[in-house]
Amino acid sequence: MTMRGASTILLATAVAAAATLAAEAGAAARPAQLGPVKSYLLEHTRPLTAFTRDFQAISDRYYARAKRDGFRPAALAKDATVRRDLLRAKQIWVRGNPLYERVEGIVAGTPSLAAYDVILDAGSSAAEDPASAVPFDLKLPNGKVLRKPGNLYNLTEGMLWGTLPKLVVGKADLDGDGKLEFGEVLPEPNALKAAVDAFVLYAGRLDRAARVWQPTSSDAFTSVVVMVPTMSEYFGQWKTSRFVLGDRASSEAFNVVSRLSDIGDILGGLRVIYAGIRPSIAGVDSAQAAQTKRDLDSLHAFVGKLRTQENAGRRFTPQQADILGRQAQERATAIAGQVTQAAARLKVKIAQ
Fold first, then answer.
1. Which of 32, 226, 238, 282 could form a disulfide with 259 if both were Cys (CB 3.0 to 4.6 A apart)?
2. Which domain holds residue 241?
3. What is the mean pLDDT of residues 7-34?
4. DSSP calls for 165-220
5. For 174, how many CA atoms within 13 A lie in the half-sphere containing its CB?
6. The last residue of a domain, from among 214, 235, 269
7. 240 band by pLDDT with thresholds 50, 70 and 90
8. Same domain for 151 and 202?
9. Is 309 among the domain residues?
């Protein structure tokens, strides 16, 4: 080969390499599409505040009737309006539960919003675990104070269905069928009012924070990396709930709406977030961006299939719950690893 021919080849190679680098640089500069993520969040925080206000109307009426009757459980149990109101409160709670779960991935995974996840849905009581306890106390109308009593969804579930016996004052045949079944209880009126009032307060604050929030790539990547690999925790909660153990369950929460439903809702929200960051990832590795989407979709479908089976009457054993939890966790860990690598290539900071 002549010197001129070699130079021509080297020049052509350099030009091709430069073109490739330029193309990669241009692709890497593709911005994340996060407007839909904020819209999705607001589509849920608005009805979340409405749910808590509807809930409050019932708790206020329940408290007023209890006060009028001297807080006597027997009088409450005989009051047909009270029984109807408590059944209605349960219906409202069940409908309100997914409003938060569908955006938990955004809220819990975003540092500026994460405190609301602790308050509303994830924080423990100080008695259970001081390190992860909620940052608030509940002052009851009667002057008593519940110190860091746990998150508001779990508190209200425990009062309405009786899994927090200390916050229940008695039982009542709410549906009038002559039998006392799971959940037919009378919440302690002072505690229910205080918890629901706090629910209204903090749901409203979350909605206002969501309105001013300007999502960043760091927020979105962090949400996926932090929230996807939480499957073992969620499956562990499902394992100890009534959906697996039935009447043998002693857990205080996750006994009314299956944790499988919650997991599906959480993953659904994370898919919305991933759709927003996928263009950026595709800019540096289109094949990986597509693979991660397939993996996340597959994990969501995996959980959805389990939920369909449960709805059809299948009762999983604790051992099966462990196996399924490990399988879900392995998938989730791989997805988080892929997104972490993409973030590193894009120089996007993952907040920990």
1. 238
2. 216-352
3. 48
4. GGGEEEE--TT-SS---TT-EEE-HHHHHHHHHHHHHHHHHHHHHHHH----HHHH
5. 22
6. 214
7. very high
8. yes
9. yes
Residues in Cβ contact with 112 at an 8 Å cutoff, skipping those fewer than 6 apart = 209, 213, 219
Residue 4 within a domain: no
Pairing of strands 145-146, 185-187: unpaired
How many structural domains compose the chain?
A: 2
Asked whether 239 and 322 are in contact (CB, 8 A), the reply is yes
Amino acid 292: pLDDT: 98
Residue 12 has pLDDT above 80, yes or no: no
Query: Tell me, what DSSP letter sits at residue 30?
Result: P
Q: What is the structure's pLDDT at 29?
A: 56
C-alpha gyration radius of the chain: 25
Asked if residue 104 and residue 250 are part of one domain, the reply reads no
- Helices 259-284 and 80-101 pack at an angle, to 10 degrees, of 20
The confidence score (pLDDT) of residue 352 equals 76
Conformational region of residue 247, where left means phi above 0, alpha means psi within -120 to 50, and beta covers everything else: alpha
Among 214, 232, 248, the domain boundary falls at 214
Task: Say how far apart CA 234 and CA 227 lie, in whole Å.
Answer: 11
Global confidence as pTM: 0.89
Question: Which among 225, 69, 68, 202 has a CA at the least distance from the CA of 134?
Answer: 202
